[in-house]
């Protein structure tokens, strides 16, 4: 009886291994379903960007192309899996950054209020910048030039 039970478990394990890839086997079924929609949206964004191969770094496109605040569909992740599925983005300063995967991109967006537009991976070839920019001292302020006022007053006070 034990041998029969062991044989059934072995057959089920082999069938499961053939059905799912290595990455899928180590993810709960719920995450596989949740990742299906963002992955499809990411593919459409990459395909659309491959079609328009403009190299200007200005603010091309309308404001709806830029993504900033978290949505209910994509909550802020606490941690990301170490799966390499690179994503290239252009921030609102025109700097290209490459993220290891979409989760790290979402985490950066949540942690620093990072604004970006997903672009073709060709734009990030040879890019060695850190994935997520550090938040500036002006994060959350209405006017970034307040930093200059503070720096000027600090230097004049030390003279």
UniProtKB/TrEMBL annotation:
Domain Kazal-like, first and last residues per copy: 70-126
Stored InterPro entries: Kazal_dom, Kazal_dom_sf
Record field: transmembrane: none
Gene3D superfamilies, sorted: 3.30.60.30
Signal peptide: 1-17
Keywords: Signal
SUPFAM superfamilies noted in UniProt: Kazal-type serine protease inhibitors
Positions with biased composition (Acidic residues): 49-62
Hydrolase keyword on record: no
Stretches for region Disordered: 46-78, 130-159
Protein's UniProt name: Greglin
Origin species: Locusta migratoria
